[in-house]
Amino acid sequence: MARYGMALDYKNCINCKACEVACKEENGVELGAEKHRIWVGGNNPDGQWPLLDIASAAFMPSQCQHCEDAPCQEVCPTNATYYDENHVVRVDSDKCILCSYCMNACPYDARYVDDRTMTVDKCTFCSDTRLARGETTTACQNTCPTKVRTFGDLDDPNSEISELLRTRDHFSLKAHLGTNPKLFYLT
Amino acid sequence: MQVEMSRRRFLQGGVAMSVVGGTTFSATNLFASHEESHGSVPTTITTKTSTGEAKEVPILCGMCVNKCAAFARVEDGVITKLNPNPYFPKSRNMLCPRGNAGIQTTYDPDRLKYPMIRIGKRGDGKYKRVTWDEAYDAIVNGTDKFKGLKQILDEEKDNRATVGYANGEGLSKEGFEVLIGQKMGTPNYVDEVSICLETAGGGFFSTIGTYPEIDFEHADYQIIAGANRAEAIITPDTMDMFKYTKGRGLKTICIDPRFTNTAAKSDKWLPINPGTDLAFVLALTWVVFKENLQNEKFMEKHGVGYEEYKQHILSHKYTPEWAEPICGIKAKEIYTIAREFMDAESPIYYPGRRSVFSPNDYQLRRAMAIFQALSGNMDKKGGYIFGNRGLLPAEYVKQPIYENTKERFDTEGIAFPTLKSGSWIVFRNMVLEGKNPYPVRAMLMRKHNPMMSVPNTTKTRAFLEKMDLNVVIDILPTDTAMLADVILPEASYLERMSPVKSYGFLEPSVVMRKAAIEPLFETKTPEVIFKELGEKLSKPLFEVSKKHDVALQELIKEKGEKVAFEEGGYNLAEPFEKPIEERNEEVITEVFGKKAWETINEKGVYYPHMEEYHKQLSPNDFQYYPKNKRKYTSRGDSLKIVCKNDSLTSGGIDAMPTWDDAWKFSVPKGEFRLITGRHAQFTQSGTQNNMMLRDLIPTNFVWINQREADKMGIKFGEKVEIKSDIGAIVLKAYPTEKIAPNQIFLLHGFGSESNGMEFAYGNGGNDATIIKDDIEPMYGASVMHSTNCKIRKV
Description:
heterodimer, A: two-stranded antiparallel ribbon, 5 helices, 12 strands, 18% helix, B: alpha/beta, Rossmann fold, Dimethylsulfoxide Reductase, domain 2, Barwin-like endoglucanases, 7-stranded mixed β-sheet, 6-stranded mixed barrel, 26 helices, 29% helix
């Protein structure tokens, strides 16, 4: 039993997308540019050449935020979306009827349709691959060239992530929606 | 081309992939073109890792030049995942997107699967599947369609130089150089160096004696100019650098015509006119001398021609005001940067390994190295690191002497030609223009795709078409392979053990790539190919030498044929007789002992005291060497900073970096300067058929300034023709403010014309077809940023 979360030292991110590829290979995610569990968001810088605003061009790695109060789970009519024993938001593809309520409810756009199984798919924190084998990192954390991510148990005061959240300022995405994400962006 | 089965079926998930071992492809489907599913994206080719049994095999990534260490997870004979190897200091426990996507390269359905020989006309794609023996025989003896090496060398009276060869970067490259260069005896070798970073290496080497490593951990200021480490990943620089940017210790000034991802991670981005970095560095240097900011003691001790350089800079009045109109960077910015740099505790002018962009690149590198030295931050913690040499000794090869072999000739317009790998452009062009003193009649090419990598594809095609024999050893049917007479399919990097490789500098180590799986289809590992080809060539080519080589005839008279053959080194296969597994074991055991072999065999990495030094510090961080075991200073008093190099003038090269107004940047009205560069998700033309990476970079868009695009009515994704003096390509437009109004940018490595590669074929445009084949004067390396283009909406 754990309460898994992830801290992202997003200023390290160089938008190389190693995380996205590692995730796809580890978890057998369907190929296709629109099919991804994690991604890196970025904007073109504000301004006109040669005066461009560097701060506006930050890279923001994103994915399912594994909300404590997940709108996707609330709206699912078949309970296909559920919390597993480690508080990870999961999808039971046997129960999913592809009504896509969850996709509309998710404020983070973290869900997509797997055309092979015709169900909704999303990040699992590698629960059924790496974690199931006893590994302690997700594929995205492990591969990251600049080590943006730290995955761990928020309930374990001695975990690296707990330490990071104690000592570093951080924020959550769309905190005002009351979803209580378990992804934390370190500043 | 006949279609045998759809990609979809071939790739049907999971362990079913293990069937690729042999029987699923028919003989007629030589290039597996999959026209039936052309343009569609397969539903799955990723394999979810299981919780069952798996082997973890140490490998070295082969997707680019860096050679990151990884472990291949192999389940039931199928590679399901590549994970970073935490033992290798250089790759810092990471794998980039290309590294992760390496699985797709090995399982690419368009792989070359069998040896083939040409049965149609060159370039029409008609090949016959043959056995390895038949393919080797065709190389030696030819067929009714083309001549073999034996006949060519006999006709050329054993002038081995009439056979040229090429090999792109990689761990087995040296083996090919040994086989074709040292053993078969031709000096005419071309490789990636003269179309890549030759002047960067040469400039730094000749000025400070090395191409340095950087200690980012202790640096506090950097100028990164014309280098894009966020996208053109170099290990360990990329991982080390961006830990400290953005207000975390390493103030970063990015100088680049484009707003790159590196610019996005910097404190300041200053777009510079292409090709004018030298003026920028000279102006920085002027400020330093004018305001006396340099570490005078350091320069007095280590500088060669230092006083003259100072006078040279001051007397030429390389002021920031002078540089401003040339570079397009405000004078006051140049003053600020020069002062901040010299004021910093550990400043770095990043050496910036990359292609040659401008004709002054050699002098630019010299000026950069000297500017760095002015801070005194060299050969010490936080600075340029010289560190340790590699840990392994060089191997000895018994090299035959071929009396009738001529020297290489590609020296026209070059001050200091490099004997080993020459100049691709000068070599090719002299042959095309008939300026070669003897014919070049064959090209043996391994892991190299000059049709896409050497500027001016039209000329490269004409050059290859001129040959009596083209042989290609590769893993995919590249544009170059389509001009081959004999194609030998090689095992991909995940299917082979490679020669051990050692790295020096701050944290030296030796690494080894093992085979994660057996070679697929009928492919063979490079070392096996070298051995077999060597065996097939030895006797027939020895006969040619016997006929024409007087010195050999005398040796035979004196010692008998058998002894002459063996002692003379004419057994070309001799360096490859021991399998690579044995050779690796031997060399590691000999240098480090038996235990080291066990370690490297299991972990893929070895260095002395590894067990003691290597520690996991946190889930993300490892220690490879404790700080007190890192050699931050190694040159000491012997360090020389060659400010003035009089020997250069014999070749017409300035002894000191000097600006020439001919290098000023200008673009005719209505035209655009073409600049090239990299993305983190692509390696040159080598990854263009990788379906995973294609999801990330679907094609090479042309960047065009947003306001220019608006004026021309060009919107995102619309097709535009880009036309230079030598060719035209059509690309989709990406209007953006990240580029200047008079420049365009496009990514290299797209636009394959080989219909043997389903995804690469016809996707985007090949920049080599429009980039002019200009060279710089020092080594004849190709200059990539000198082409102007016209654009129109199509």
